[in-house]
Structure formats: C-alpha cells, structure tokens
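Structure ticket #2291
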Amino acid sequence: MIPTTAPIPVPDPELIAFAHDLADRAGAVIRPLFRQHLDIDTKSDASPVTIADRGAEAAIRELINDRYPAHGILGEEFGAERADADWVWHLDPIDGTKSFICGSAQFATLIALAWRGEPVIGIIDQPIQRERWVGVAGKPTLFNGKPVQTRDCAGIDSATFFSWGAECFEGDRGAALWRLAEGTALRRYSADAYAYGLLALGFVDIVAENDLKPHDYLALAPVVNGAGGRITDWEGNPIRFGTGAETVAVGDPALHAEVIARLKG
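Resolution: structure written out below.
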C-alpha cells in the first residue's frame, strides 16, 4: 500500500457497477441462510463465523479474480491477495455476525475499493431488507438509487449515538468512548455498520467505535462523506487504510470538533 500525493482517480462507471454486482452476489449467498440454524465456528480472535460469512466472501472474491485479476483483495475471512496493488477491494461479507446468528437484520455486507489506501467506493448493503448505500468519492451518497442527506444536530446533548456493542466500552479506550456517549440524548448498540447507513439517512447523529479493521471501516467513509457527514479517526485524521481502528462519524460536521475533544478528555 503506497501512499501518494497524486490525485485520486475517479472510479469509472464500470467499477461502480461491478461493486453493485459484488453486493448482489453476496446477498444471494446470505439470504437463504438467514434465520437458519447454522454451525457456528469461533475464529482465533474469539469472534464467530458461519458458512454465510465464508460463502459470501468466497463468491465475491471469485468475481473479482475473474474480472479484475490485477486488483488486490483484503477480506475478513480469507485474508490477502495482491495486497500491494494500487487498487484493492476490502471485503466484510457480514459485518455484524453476532446479529446475523441471533436472527437480527442489523448487519451489513461491506465492500470498499481503495486506491493506494484511499477509499473511493463504499457499499453498505443490508441484503435481507434490500437496502443499499453507495458512496463514491466526490459524489452524493445514494440509498437504493436516490440521494440521501445527514441531518443537522443542535449539540451532543441532543444527539442520537450508536456504537457496535457494549464491548467497545471495555479496556483502556472504553472510558473515552463512554465520556462521549454519556453526554448524548439517546444511546443504542449492536447495529455495527448499519448504524452508519442510518446516519447517512438522517436518523443517527454520532457513531463512535474502536477495535476496527480496514474491512470494517473503509467502506463507511465514502458513504458518510457523500451524505454530508464527516468521518475520521479519533485524532481527526481522514479515514484511509491504517487510520480507522478508532472511528468516529457525525451527521452534522459542526459537531465533529466537540466530539473529538470529548474523546480526548
């Protein structure tokens, strides 16, 4: 992954259409397996995984290798292929596996295309409810084909806050996250990437999380930014490969400085 100061290329329509094809293929694998009693394996990081996660990622990796064999792939379930390529696809077939195995539709397929680490296409796809957010760098975010916009928020004390789970509040960084969350008007957990889609629709004001991987956060940036929000790491750096392990998104950019200040204490 080579950082560059060269202009980030605008993805052509064929790449955007192909990203849709990947989401369609993943959904076709996932839908028949939803609310079925599947075997659940435990990965080395203690997180659960099912045939739905693995099958969906395998299916879309096959499409990428057939259509764009020079592109890299970094996926949650099957690791890296050609990770040093300029163009790299980042895949999380089911972001929110815990919700999936509980029969809850608060999960999403995440697909990002990054150029030298900079996310230029991001898809958040909820295959059960057939909801799809598509962000492309420099363009408005689309939800099921129509532009969407985040909402204004008067202040943190009137904000709706989401985070991926109560586990975020454990450990050294949990105190910082709670310092932000406790000052908000409404707090909800366990929506994973779906919460960022709700932020883009104007129903959520702040999403803050920690312990994320590139496949968790890269797809989020084009979606949030293209809807009028702002997403960075906890230091205020733009999201790119390697800077999103601790991520914060706001629907109203005017909130961003205060949110960062609260996280820093």
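Closing remark: DSSP finds eight helices and 15 strands in the chain.
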